[in-house]
């Protein structure tokens, strides 16, 4: 049995780790088709460099099932083999992402009309797919009903061993200043400017910014003295720093993509406070943190949160956390089922 993953770009660290984990439970071969190999080859996965994959080139790999991102430009894959699309965004999230760089009302209206037209194509490829794997509630609510075999999952890289380590960390008890971390690209879509607004309102709190990006120099010039920029960290270092140094994660993403950082912070035993976008409020409602409307409300929440609340959220998050290995195995089982159905259906 052969699984073929068609990537829109070079394989990054997250894709490499995910495909390697898929290969541990997939009953056969795993092949990744990418424009170029990327940073490294996943373990037990054959990488085929294909700048412009076609129906003929993918069919030549003899896939039993194909996995690709939920994008209209990948719709042709459904004519090649049973195809499962990974859906992450709904129309609202895509619209929010583009509106962040819009220049004026006319540009915003043009973007909205374009997204409305493009939504028909997203819905069409969802209907044509053999299955959907929906990363988060937004994609699930938008597209699951269109698919005969949808699966809901939460994408992250927190392993069982990470959860064990997180359970051993002590909760902040107020004996030192509260330490709050933002993690992500320093770009407008992640909201680092909001972090600085909050930091100005809370001079008694320490803030760490973990990540790099185009706004770093501007943010550093504007940052108050209680903010420290740590730059990009590899994932193993990031997990260690989050577990050992951070009491609360501030992730004020203005648009509601299903960011793995929410889950990865929680998987390090760090409660999350975020904003009212398309994704975080439903997770906060599960008792995983707090969703606030703006910088002033975020600052009020951070100032008022106590050790007991932090401990309750941390305990709840870790006790119900599905580790990376289980998420990958469940996704593989879904793909195996779809491949098996295709083999037996007339």
TrEMBL record:
This is D-inositol 3-phosphate glycosyltransferase. It holds the Pfam family Glyco_trans_1_4. It comes from Microbacterium azadirachtae. GO terms for molecular function: glycosyltransferase activity. The lineage of its organism: Bacteria, Bacillati, Actinomycetota, Actinomycetes, Micrococcales. It comes from the Bacteria.
């Amino acid at each position: 049995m052969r699984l073929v993953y068609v990537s829109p770009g070079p394989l990054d660290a997250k894709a490499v780790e995910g495909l390697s984990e898929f290969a541990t439970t997939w009953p056969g071969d795993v092949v990744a088709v990418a424009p170029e190999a990327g940073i490294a080859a996943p373990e037990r996965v054959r990488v085929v460099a294909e700048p412009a994959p076609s129906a003929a080139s993918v069919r030549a790999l003899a896939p039993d099932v194909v996995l690709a991102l939920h994008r209209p430009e990948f719709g042709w894959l459904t004519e090649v083999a049973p195809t499962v699309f990974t859906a992450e965004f709904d129309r609202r999230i895509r619209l929010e992402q583009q509106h962040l760089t819009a220049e004026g009302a006319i540009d915003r209206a043009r973007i909205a009309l374009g997204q409305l037209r493009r939504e028909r194509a997203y819905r069409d490829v969802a209907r044509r797919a053999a299955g959907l794997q929906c990363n988060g509630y937004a994609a699930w609510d938008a597209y699951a009903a269109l698919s005969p075999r949808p699966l809901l999952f939460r994408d992250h890289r927190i392993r069982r061993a990470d959860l064990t380590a997180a359970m051993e960390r002590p909760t902040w008890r107020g004996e030192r200043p509260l330490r709050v971390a933002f993690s992500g690209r320093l770009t407008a879509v992640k909201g680092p400017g909001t972090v600085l607004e909050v930091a100005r309102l809370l001079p008694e709190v320490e803030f760490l910014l973990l990540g790099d990006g185009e706004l770093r120099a501007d943010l550093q010039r504007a940052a108050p003295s209680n903010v420290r920029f740590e730059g990009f960290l590899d994932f193993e270092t990031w997990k260690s720093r989050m577990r050992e140094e951070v009491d609360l994660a501030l992730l004020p993403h203005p648009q509601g993509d299903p960011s793995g950082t929410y889950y990865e912070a929680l998987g390090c035993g760090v409660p999350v406070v975020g904003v009212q976008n398309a994704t975080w409020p439903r997770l906060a409602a599960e008792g995983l943190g707090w969703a606030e409307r703006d910088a002033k409300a975020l600052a009020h929440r951070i100032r008022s949160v106590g050790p007991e609340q932090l401990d309750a959220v941390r305990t709840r998050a870790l006790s119900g956390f599905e580790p990376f290995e289980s998420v990958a195995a469940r996704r593989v089982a879904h793909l195996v089922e779809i491949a098996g159905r295709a083999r037996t259906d007339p």
